[in-house]
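Collaborator request, handled under Task 6.
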Amino acid sequence: MSEITDGDRAGFFADVDEASKKAIWCAVATSSPNGPRVRMVHPTWEGEILWFATGTSSPKVRHLEADPRVDIQFQVAPPDFVHVQVRGKATIVTDAEEKKRVWDVIDYDLGQFWPGGAGDPEYTLVRVDPERVEHSKMFGSMEQRVWRAS
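Structure tokens returned to the collaborator:
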């Protein structure tokens, strides 16, 4: 395993973004009073920040409000077998201007789910600030590179 230095940071996150785009969907784990919950989301990187949207009444929102820790895993199918894993803190974004700005950052049509646009009351934006990001191949067994927040 190689640790990412500040000098390698920008290149590492560019590699993570590229690999993540190949995965399309990924799994996010949250905590609930009954134990962990895993579900599929479609996040988008913006530099070192990971964004995803969910429904305001979604159990994810309640879980994240109670415990903001998340673990997110992207898995790319053959032939690449790229693995990206993100552990971090999620924040529910309530600022209307930021929700509108990120509406256009997310790389799919959010209007499919929230026809009212960025002001739709059911649109909830989640920001993930990573604490640890791993990029590797073959399910984490090869070419493992890890970045950790200072």
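The cover message to the collaborator said: "Strands lie at 2-3, 26-32, 35-41, 44-46, 49-55, 69-75, 82-93, 123-137, 142-148. The domain at 2-92+124-148 is CATH 2.30.110.10 (Pnp Oxidase; Chain A). Please let us know whether this matches your experimental observations."
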